[in-house]
Amino acid sequence: KQEVTQIPAALSVPEGENLVLNCSFTDSAIYNLQWFRQDPGKGLTSLLLIQSSQREQTSGRLNASLDKSSGRSTLYIAASQPGDSATYLCAAITQGGSEKLVFGKGTKLTVNP
Amino acid sequence: NAGVTQTPKFQVLKTGQSMTLQCAQDMNHEYMSWYRQDPGMGLRLIHYSVGAGITDQGEVPNGYNVSRSTTEDFPLRLLSAAPSQTSVYFCASSYSNRGHNSPLHFGNGTRLTVT
Predict the structure, then answer these.
(1) Residues B77/B18, Cβ–Cβ less than 8 Å
(2) What's the rounded Cα separation, in Å, for the pair A34 and A18?
(3) Best of B29, B34, B41, B43 to disrupt the A interface by mutation (most A CBs within 10 Å)?
(4) What is the pLDDT of residue A14?
(5) Which of A23, A33, B63, B71 is 20 to 30 Å from A50 by CA-CA measure?
(6) Comparing C-alpha atoms, which of A81, A7, A107, A86 is closest to residue A42?
(7) CB atoms < 10 A from the CB of A12, how many?
(8) Alpha-carbon distance B100 to A102, whole Å?
(9) Mind listing the pLDDT tens digit for each residue in B18-63?
(10) Arithmetic mean of pLDDT, A88-99
(11) Mind giving me the DSSP string for chain A?
């Protein structure tokens, strides 16, 4: 059974800092790994999707990497801003069976001005 | 382009009442799903559908029914509400459940309280 873990559960950084959010998964047979952002009281917004054949994806100040052999993905945020404050969740879709998306519990990021 | 639309945004039910949470998407997505989000538990899959007329159970299906009569709509029915069903419910859709290059799109959620 796929398990997705995100550590730390919460992170507080000063504005302008570069930071890395971590995501680990137990079953490396995945189709893709997705990173989402959730603002309070809102739904999840898709940030980046990395297919299993890819090593990384970039969008603006965000860069996500995938290392299936070690069961890890990282989300790098460059030059963080207060507007980046949110909860970030990763999710993996595992090959075979029903191919359901399994979510981590998220990292709550606070960027202080 | 509305994306994924959920109604209502808030609902209070008494134990034993039934209700339907509505979900509609206008992106012609094949795959639709319902999650509940609880503090400390993360997002848990309730039911999902890979196309009109096809539904299947997720991780926590008990107490919920779904149907998929059209591509656009995927309602979630609570048969007899219980306090344990107090949660935030999210509907999500994507082009394909295999999701190779198909990100999941979420609605803004329905906050349900069962007293």
Answers:
(1) yes
(2) 20
(3) B43
(4) 97
(5) B71
(6) A86
(7) 11
(8) 14
(9) 999 999 999 999 999 999 999 888 899 999 999 999 999 998 999 9
(10) 81
(11) ---EE-S-SEEEEETT--EEEEEEES---EEEEEEEEE-TTS-EEEEEEEETT-SEEEETTEEEEEETTTTEEEEEE-S--GGG-EEEEEEEEESSTT--EEE---EEEEEE-
Model confidence over B71-112: pLDDT tens digits?
Answer: 999 999 999 999 999 999 999 999 876 656 788 999 999 999
Q: Beta-carbon neighbour count of residue A49 at 10 Å?
A: 23
**Greatest CA separation found in chain B?**
42
Query: Which residue is closest to A6 within chain B, CA to CA?
Result: B42
Please identify which residue in the block is written with the tokens 């009281």: A41
Q: How far apart are CA B104 and CA B92, in angstroms?
A: 6
Hey, what are B111's tokens?
Answer: 């906050």
Residues linked to residue B1 through DSSP beta bridges, in sequence order: none
Interchain CB distance below 8 Å, B99 and A93:
yes
Q: Does A42 touch chain B (CB under 8 A)?
A: yes
What would the pLDDT profile of A2-37 be if each residue is shown by its tens digit? Answer: 899 999 999 999 999 999 999 999 988 888 899 999
* Alpha-carbon torsion, ordered B84, A107, B111, A41, to 10 deg: 160
Structure-block tokens of residue B98: 């295999």
Residue A41 CA to residue B108 CA, distance in Å, equals 8
